[in-house]
Amino acid sequence: MHLSNGFITARAHTNIALIKYWGKKNDDLIIPNNNSLSLTLDEFYTDTSVKFSNELSKDSIFLDDVDISNSTKIVNFLDIIREKASISEYAYVKSYNNVPTSAGLASSASGFAALAAAASKAAGLQLTSKELSKLARRGSGSATRSIFGGFAEWIKGNTDNDSYGVEIENPVTMDINMIAVVLNDQPKKISSRVGMKRSVETSPYYNAWVKQCEVDLIKAKTAIKENDFNTLGKISESNAMRMHALTMSAEPAFMYFNNDSIQVINSVKTLRENGVECYFTMDAGPNVKIICKSKDIKKIKAALTKTFNDEQIVVSKPGCGVQFIN
Ligand code: DP6
């Protein structure tokens, strides 16, 4: 598809949660059970161009040049925007991911954040960041935070109107990097949507998770304020493991780790025993993300390349919030 005039293009970066969102109290509106906190990354992003046109008889949606016009998730999301803008035209959507899609590298976060920005503007709406964040949330929960750069928090709220993201610190003053170890770029078997629902409904530990997240969140925010890298790293690592404990305690149980994930986790622990300050986190896929300081990137990469290829290791700095690029 050639991009002619009239397209609005937005770029949004992925974010990785340090305090995870795992479970909704309202599935339709995507209202979470707990606040979450993330770091937006500069290396992974989605560029999305949108144009509404009365020449179309249905939405025409392409992701990385593949026709995905049948995606009900995206069509429903465009319906929300049409309703808000009181328009009825269908949209051309052309999106490019600089992220391995559905591999646990949060492509839905950058995807829906970029789509919310581009499509709302193309529909004639002028939304504030807070409004964009609420809109992005309707596509995918984690997208709520990708409207913002640096450290962002998703305030859980109770309704469509009070569940949105806020910037905690941007630009980030802490020396923090995230090394993504890409272990599998195949789409995951159990999506986060399905996985978190099963955890909410069947894990006997679910209520304890929600309670613990409140404690973890306060500690993480204090660590950010005090520029305390190690406390933030520790709390992020335990919060991730607590989330994965919910998948393993669900019925039927499932897990996102594979053998390589365990190997990376063990390398992080060995590095730490040898004085390298680094911590891991994992989402709904086998990839492991390592939080570290700039001075240790080389050492960590050297340890990982004993087992993994260079291309599997991507180093990110904190990234910026959503922006229009035309
Ligand atoms: C593990 O945002 O993908 O990455 O709201 O159902 O679209 P839906 O889920 P999604 O879940 C992300 C889960 C997570 C943790 C996080 O990003 O907070």
Which CATH top level class of the largest domain fits?
Answer: Alpha Beta
**In angstroms, what is the radius of gyration?**
19 Å
How many strand elements?
14
**Backbone shape:** globular
Enzyme class: lyase
EC number: 4.1.1.33
GO molecular function: ATP binding; diphosphomevalonate decarboxylase activity
Family: Belongs to the diphosphomevalonate decarboxylase family.
Describe the structure.
This protein is of the alpha+beta class and 326 residues long. The protein has 2 domains: 8-173, Ribosomal Protein S5, domain 2, CATH 3.30.230; 177-316, Alpha-Beta Plaits (2-Layer Sandwich), CATH 3.30.70. Helices cover 37% and strands 25% of the residues. The protein has 9 helices and 14 strands. It has helices spanning 72-85, 107-122, 129-139, 143-146, 192-202, 206-225, 229-248, 259-273, 297-304, and strands at residues 8-19, 24-26, 31-32, 36-53, 60-63, 66-67, 90-97, 151-155, 164-169, 177-181, 278-282, 288-292, 313-316, 323-324. The strands form 3 sheets. Strands 1, 4, 5, 6, 7, 8, 9 and 14 form an 8-stranded mixed beta sheet that branches. It has a 4-stranded antiparallel beta sheet with strand order 11-12-10-13. It has a two-stranded antiparallel ribbon with strand order 2-3. Strand 2 (24-26) and strand 3 form a beta hairpin. Helix 2 packs across helix 3 (129-139). Bound molecules: ligand DP6. The site of ligand DP6 has 14 residues, from helix 5.
Helices and strands in order:
Blueprint: E1 8-19, E2 24-26, E3 31-32, E4 36-53, E5 60-63, E6 66-67, H1 72-85, E7 90-97, H2 107-122, H3 129-139, H4 143-146, E8 151-155, E9 164-169, E10 177-181, H5 192-202, H6 206-225, H7 229-248, H8 259-273, E11 278-282, E12 288-292, H9 297-304, E13 313-316, E14 323-324
Helix pairs in contact: 2-3, 6-7
The chain binds ligand DP6.
Organism: Apilactobacillus ozensis DSM 23829 = JCM 17196
Pfam family, one: MVD-like_N
Protein name: diphosphomevalonate decarboxylase
